[in-house]
Structure to design on (416 residues):
């Protein structure tokens, strides 16, 4: 038998759904069961004169009606007054209120496919979801039982960078703490012990470790907790990004310093006071460290009271200044759109890695306080300190790998 999509439905909803690729049903004619059902449905063994018996009623439609049909057995349709040209008479009848408004319990739809891993480095999670809409509960029917979202761990190793740290499994990676016994950084999972201060879980996945400086006793006001990176070799510029939580009404201060090989510190970033309960992203460009080894240092200063837990997670480094936004490829000509030649890098071009040119141009432009920069002719680094009409000669598609060709600019803008 071949069933309609609403076969056995009590509520006029589809009960049968096509699944692509599935191979079901009789395709070479009727089965024995098909023939018995057809004969019985159409009263074929009684074939002769006049009407068949009425069929059973159909399910109720949206406008609360049901129908039944009977068939004319005769070869002459005039034997069956009221019959259609197809030999069928259809009778409609109102459904009862109970039938039309019967409660329908909800049922889960299919699971979505798994999401990608939440991290492109180390431990993350992936998830899939389903909704209670196949069908949705109606007329006080029950909601689906069971979970709507499922989560699984996933681990991505390929792009891990050794300088990045997510404090996974309580590891400090290359970071080292100072030894103030009353107030220091410590690894932690879940909420901190004092309500209304500290985060609820780590930033990486919500399930793993972060580090924080606990403000409860024995810590006292203005205690200092230091977290110092390994020695980094000289580099022209880098962007460090991190997540911090500074939740608590007597919040102290968090600062980031760069420390040279003689131990003198320069402040790159600082935040003071309550910043709310969520993780917030921070970033700082590390520049002007091209001659000596250096370290990065986080310094937490405890506030006047114990509602002052300061937390950190997901500290990453990348080899560009922070926040260089790609504005795109544009034509240029004499009377340059970006007026200053910051540096000519044409004798250093690595034709297999044009990003080296972009990075060096970006670092030099950042050091010299340019707001906009562009790479033209594969190796010329042009800039403008103020807002300029970088697009005044029109857009172009004559750029490659983030650099412009002859008289085209690939333009970037610093966002910090
Ligand atoms: Ca973490």
């Amino acid at each position: 038998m071949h069933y309609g999509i609403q076969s056995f439905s009590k509520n006029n909803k589809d009960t049968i759904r096509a699944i692509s690729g599935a191979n079901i049903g009789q395709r070479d004619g009727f089965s024995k069961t098909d023939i018995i059902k057809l004969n019985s449905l159409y009263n074929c063994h009684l074939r002769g004169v006049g009407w068949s018996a009425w069929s059973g009623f159909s399910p109720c439609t949206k406008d609360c009606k049901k129908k039944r049909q009977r068939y004319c057995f005769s070869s002459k349709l005039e034997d069956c007054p009221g019959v259609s040209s197809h030999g069928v008479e259809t009778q409609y009848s109102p459904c009862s209120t109970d039938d039309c408004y019967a409660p329908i319990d909800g049922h889960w739809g299919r699971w979505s496919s798994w999401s990608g891993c939440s991290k492109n480095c180390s431990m993350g999670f992936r998830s899939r979801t389903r909704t209670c809409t196949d069908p949705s509960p109606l007329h006080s029917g029950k909601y689906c039982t069971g979970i709507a979202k499922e989560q699984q761990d996933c681990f991505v190793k390929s792009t891990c960078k050794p300088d990045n740290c997510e404090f996974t499994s309580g590891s400090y990676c290359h970071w080292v703490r100072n030894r103030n016994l009353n107030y220091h950084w410590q690894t932690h999972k879940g909420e901190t012990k004092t309500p209304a201060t500290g985060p609820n879980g780590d930033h990486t996945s919500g399930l793993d470790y972060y580090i924080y400086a606990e403000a409860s006793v024995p810590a006292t006001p203005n205690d200092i907790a230091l977290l110092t990176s390994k020695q980094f070799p000289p580099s022209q510029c880098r962007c460090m990004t991190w997540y911090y939580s500074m939740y608590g009404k007597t919040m102290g201060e968090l600062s980031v310093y760069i420390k040279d090989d003689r131990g003198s510190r320069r402040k790159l970033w600082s935040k003071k006071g309550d910043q709310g309960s969520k993780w917030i992203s921070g970033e700082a460009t590390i520049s002007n460290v091209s001659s000596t080894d250096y370290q990065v240092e986080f310094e937490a200063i405890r506030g006047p009271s114990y509602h002052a837990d300061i937390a950190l997670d997901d500290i990453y480094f990348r080899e560009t200044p922070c926040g260089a936004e790609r504005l795109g490829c544009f034509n240029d000509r004499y009377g340059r759109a970006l007026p200053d030649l910051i540096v000519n890098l044409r004798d250093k071009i690595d034709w297999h890695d044009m990003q080296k040119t972009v990075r060096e141009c970006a670092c030099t432009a950042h050091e010299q306080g340019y707001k906009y920069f562009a790479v033209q002719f594969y190796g010329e680094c042009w800039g403008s300190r103020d807002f300029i009409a970088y697009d005044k000669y029109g857009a172009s598609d004559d750029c490659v790998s983030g650099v412009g060709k002859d008289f085209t600019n690939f333009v970037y803008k610093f966002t910090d």
Summary: The chain has three helices and 21 strands.
